[in-house]
Amino acid sequence: MPWPSRKRDKGAVADKKEPDAKIAKTEEETSDKEEEEKSAKPPAGGSKSGWKNWKKKESESGGEESKITYCHWLLKSEPESRLEKGVDVKFSVDDLKAQPNQTTCWDGVRNYQARNFLRSMKIGQQAFFYHSNCKEPGIVAIVKIVKEAYPDHTQFDQKDPHYDSTSRKENPKWSMVDVQFVRMTKRFIPLSELKALHLAHKADGGPLKDMMLFTRQRLSIQPLTQEEFDFVLSLEETKPH
């Protein structure tokens, strides 16, 4: 890809508070722990509300109960600069929008579960673009899959931070997909709001009770059920909780 930045999910890095400690696309070792700690407050009053009325609205409009299958995704990316082996691995939604046709490969994934999720992606499926390891992490945009999994070229590039000397071209270990910008979300949906809703839904059985953003928070590529995706999308139309 023409940009020096790389999507990565080799290892999550803890959020840095210093203004010059910046980052790019994250993964399993990336410690979203600090992000979660910052937002791990019990839901207050209205934070708990929303899903039952939302569910009722879906039912009234004839919406069917979604099956427990993963058909949407959440892709974490670090929007602030950080050098890894001399390469700036930053990649924000603005970087994506600046790409030709607003499309890029999602490379640098070095976690097997995340790789398997990549390999499960289908053309046309939508994903949330999530800014991670920054001052205020959260969902900023929607993207779609425009090319299904194929070998990640960075695994064979010795100058790339994500070079893997154990991978062979005849049997590549790592895959990537191509994603295209669809639109910005109508409002920024912060991790803190999603966390409060997750805690409330754990208590009363709401749609975000098992959201992988909190059950497997270090993964930079996470699947979403139709119900999870639709509920998070519905937050665009509400005031921040």
UniProtKB/TrEMBL annotation:
Residues 72-234 form the EVE domain. Pfam families: EVE. Keywords: Nucleus, Phosphoprotein. It is found in: Nucleus. Gene3D superfamilies: ph1033 like domains. GO terms for cellular component: nucleus. It comes from the Eukaryota. The keyword Nucleus applies. Specifically binds 5-hydroxymethylcytosine (5hmC), suggesting that it acts as a specific reader of 5hmC. This is Thymocyte nuclear protein 1.
